Amino acid sequence: KPKGLDNSSKELIPSYDWFQTDGTVTVVIYTKQKEMSSESVIADLQEGRLRGEIIVNDYSYLLHIELSYAVHEDIIVQVSEKVGKVELLLKKKETLSWKGLGQPLQSHNTFDKCADRGLFYRKCKLISKSSVSHDTRLLCLMLPPGTHLQVPVGCHLYLKQTITGTEIVKPYTPVTSSLVSKFKDLTDNDKRHIFFMIKIYPSGLFTPALDCICMGDYISVSNPEGNFKKPKAEDVEDLFLLAAGTGLTPMVKLLNYSLTSSSSLRTAKLMFFNKTEDDILWRNQLEQLALNDTRFNVQFVLSEPNAGWTGKQGKISLPLVSQFVKRSKDDSKMLVYICGPLPFMEQGIQILQDLGTSSKEIHCFRA
Ligand code: FAD
Ligand code: NAD
Asked: Is the C-beta atom of 245 inside 6 A of ligand 2?
């Protein structure tokens, strides 16, 4: 029996079964959840090994098997969200009847706290790379055909590279390919693409090596992680986003999600802090989004502006935040999201608390 929960909760533990036809093998996982999202399923088929992970709240159910016979490299994942059933469809290389599914691998059929489940990596191919600014790139990585993985809003992944013999791992937050929806429709439908907006620090440990990866090369990408709770944003009326530098990244999917899926949203405001005008990421797209959607507006604040800058100046401060975070009506349900350098987030939280914002209304993106 899977371990991880006490006796009283055993009926909630997922279970699995499998069946076959001449050409296929289907592994079925019964999650025992009424509402299941496709984002909760991460499946990997690598060199004859099947790893399926189902996230149920803070728990992870793992199916991990060395398959008995050869299968083709791609996998089809079907999630019946209402009944909580997950099907992993494999294609046999030979039409023979399988006597068993395979041998259990490490932690097979266990139900453990997500925090105790180690990160799993798969190699993804770099398929495009472009400059967003003088030091920031937009990278598109393609998941292998044997992987099913969707990154939920507010989550980050870890990228892993071996640099001069040492494995280095750093977190990054996927973005959409663009903020402007007509571009989004073209590429984001392809669930195998993951976009990253990454700033290259010339003296950094990880990013200079990342910048040297060539088109067609591979990099290891982990499962998603993060403490963001989606329902929180569902009934929000006023959304205030405080982002600094690449702290814009989690705001991209959050904005996309809120502006397209939240029926209650009245305003979404972004205050975006950067050093200079040249550092402002996706400035045109943010301005375009504000033109396209009257609920959204953006203010840029520069800490090292050129003489010609007529906009807001300085670092995060009480006067800036107090004039920015204002409810659209007295009792509106608001949320403030903060992301950027650690001192920026700490000062932001302090300022918000000084202004009387409750801690329930503040969310920080961090590892
Ligand atoms: P590092 O070696 O960490 O150095 C970064 C900078 O600090 C360099 O300028 C370096 O010279 C300087 N530095 C290093 N050590 C010191 C020191 N001791 N004293 C003074 N200066 C020092 N980044 C993105 O670009 N995009 C994202 O989407 C993104 N998402 C993230 C999500 C999370 C949850 C977190 C926690 C971070 C995220 N980051 C993101 C930041 C990312 O993880 C790395 O920290 C960043 O890419 C820098 O890595 P690096 O190894 O190249 O630089
Ligand atoms: P940056 O150095 O270009 O600074 C951008 C702005 O941040 C500055 O103009 C200033 O207004 C503010 N700022 C910087 N240092 C500050 C300080 N000490 N006190 C107050 N304000 C300060 O920023 P960057 O190089 O783009 O760095 C972005 C940061 O965001 C990184 O530390 C990265 O780790 C973090 N980040 C975190 C997540 C996450 O946790 N989910 C995601 C993306 C980025």
From this structure: yes
